[in-house]
Amino acid sequence: MKNILITGGLGFIGSNTCIYLLEKNFKIFIIDSFLNSSEDILKKIKYLNLQLNNTNKNNLIFFEGDIRDKDTLRNVFKYALKVDAPIDIVIHLAGLKSVSESERNKMLYWDINYKGSKNLIEIMEENNCFSLIFSSSATIYGVNNTILCEDSIIKPINNYGKTKLAVEKLLEEKYISNPKLWNIINLRYFNPIGGHSSGLLGEDSYKNPNNLFPVLCMVANNDRKYLEIYGQDWETPDRTPIRDYIHIEDIAKGHLCAINYLSQRLSGFISINLGTGKGTSVLELIKIFEKVNNKKIDFIFSQRRNGDVAKYVTS
Ligand code: NAD
Ligand code: UDP
After folding, report:
1. Quick one: which H or E segment has residue 32?
2. Of all residues in the chain, what percent carry a pLDDT higher than 90?
3. Minimum mean pLDDT among 43-57, 154-168, 297-311: which range?
4. Strand (E) or helix (H) holding 287
């Protein structure tokens, strides 16, 4: 069974992917700086891991650290070797993800998303680990009202998307420089939502959440008075933006498919959209949320958010 390093493994996608892969008997190493997570998430993953039927309970090893620090990354690879579980595949999730914050704090996004990824790739190379699944985003497509496929025009309009595209390009260059060595999948996630079936692992953003779904949950829990809908003048049927929302457990399964795909070939470079092919507007999502949870969601319309686009839906 393969040994997997998950950077940012305590985040929303990381924690759900981690428990899914533990269920499938992988050995998991996590590095996370707690920038947008907490010890509490680690405790929950450990608790869920204990409920699983697998016999090896030493299958989860956590390192607190920042991917911008090469020595920390080196130590993770070194430790894995020491315990006779050299890392086979890295799932690289550590990073920042808010479109609006990326416009306000541009350099921080380049520092963490780009420099952190570059460090990781260099340390992987040092340790003869060449298999990588990278967390890219639909945001890289920019303004495009068509259904998106992997070879649609790529032109990010916000700083977050630009940092993700720069990492994709870096990875492609790495692959081109030695096509027999690197084995890379860019997963371009659309809009992951939901939580683990236990109810324990969801999108617990520790700073002010910016994504629609956690904000909806806050309003439902009376932690916010209302939802602000960013703009009512979009070029869509109900004038609110359309996204392709995909359940987090399907995202977790997508990582297992990516691992299997990497394992079946010696090298390669491919980008894959991870969505459902179904678009839902903000107003439609509110209606579905209200119906499922039997809870009224108050909202107001406000200005468009910087860097937003009308529609992202995959083919
Ligand atoms: P998240 O914020 O919940 O998780 C990211 C994790 O990375 C957090 O636990 C955080 O503490 C950690 N982290 C951040 N900077 C770090 C650093 N320098 N060193 C070590 N750890 C660090 O985000 P998420 O929703 O789980 O997203 C994971 C990845 O997927 C991100 O890179 C994001 O850009 C990408 N992505 C997310 C979405 C989405 O809608 N959730 C969509 C497309 C792409
Ligand atoms: N959105 C909104 N209010 C919020 C958060 C998000 O109206 O408080 C809208 C946002 O404009 C976008 C959609 O919801 O059209 C999804 O936003 P999210 O940040 O979740 O994902 P992304 O912008 O990355 O697709």
Report:
1. strand 27-32
2. 90
3. 43-57
4. helix 282-293
Question: Hey, what's the torsion of the CAs at 276, 37, 224, 197, to 10 degrees?
Answer: 50
User: Residue 33: CB within 6 Å of ligand 1?
Assistant: yes
The predicted model gives 236-261 an average pLDDT of 97
Active site residue 160: yes
- In angstroms, how far is CA 276 from the centroid of its own chain? 16
Q: Closest residue (by CA) to atom 13 of ligand 2?
A: 212
Q: For residue 74, what are the CA distances in angstroms to 81, 82, 118, 191?
A: 11, 12, 13, 32
Number of the ligand 2 atom closest to the C-alpha atom of 241? 15
Answer yes or no: is the C-beta of 209 below 6 A from any ligand 1 atom.
no
Distance 209 CA to ligand 1 centre (A): 12
- pTM of this prediction? 0.97
| pLDDT: which is higher, 1 or 225 | 225
> Count of CB atoms within 10 A of residue 301's CB?
14
